[in-house]
Design a protein that fits this description.
With 67 residues, the protein is α+β, with helices and mostly antiparallel strands. Helices cover 42% and strands 15% of the residues. A hairpin with a 2-residue loop joins strand 2 and strand 3.
Length: 67
Amino acid sequence: MCDDCDSPFLTIDETAKLLRVNRRTLDNHRWKQTGPPYRRHGGRIVYHRDEVVRWSEQHRPDPPTRG
């Protein structure tokens, strides 16, 4: 059984997997302050699942327009 399975907080690796990006890409977004919001819990960087999904939805490209 997993103690953290129901936690809304994701590690960096879990967040990268959820977004289907390389961990380094997520690190770069955090460094540039262009990625999803994060916080520190005991010195460890974590992301809230709902905030990651919301950030992803907000950065979805617009569908192409038909001319």
